[in-house]
Fold this sequence. Notes:
The chain is mainly beta. The protein has one helix and eleven strands; from the N terminus they run E-H-E-E-E-E-E-E-E-E-E-E. It starts with 22 loop residues before the first strand and ends with a strand.
Amino acid sequence: MGVGTTVTVSEGAxxxxxxxxxxxxxxxxxxxxxxxxxxxxxxxxxxxxxxNRPAHNFDPTKTNTLEVSSAGGFGxxxxxxxxxxxxxxxxxxxxxxxxxxxxxxEFQIATGRFTSxxxxxxxSIINVVTKSGGNDYHGSAFFYERNxxxxxxxxxxxxxxxxxxxxxxxxxxxxxxxxxxxxAWWLSSLEYRYQNAAIQAGERDFTTFSVLGGIPAFQxxxxxxxxxxLP
Length: 231
């Protein structure tokens, strides 16, 4: 008895591009709206694609930005564009401006062997597509509050030392609508973060050459992100 195999090819099959070996990924608006991001930084979306991880930030003045290391490369070697426009820091590398999470429509990243037409980078190519308005007014808003008076202390905390403060406040939103129905729309987004906290830092005892228990090291930071588009 003979054994036969039948292979059926449908018209809806996806073609494989044999002309390039670029590794790329795309994050859609549905994922962006529902996934939590620590710090609500849009570049953290790159970590959802295999081969990308956080990298060291070379600029201490940019506390609200981060760098993306792709395939083990340096974080400041990437190329970041927003709606096709350049968004790179020419001094220390990395992104130049930050954008609210509510203003991001689509996130794209390509790593390794991308075509020369995008150029500039040997690490990764990141492109962000921002949202636009519509014929109907729509928007979103959020608020996050972490108050120092509501925090709980761990059981291992030394109660004889001052309680380190921890206060973090984030709020923002987006709103958009028509300028001329079916022809032009507008969208504006704003986000603000304020943080006043303390972290545990070691205290060195030079007489015994040892590190004593942690002491609070205070840090205070705030940042604002805004984006307005008129497509």
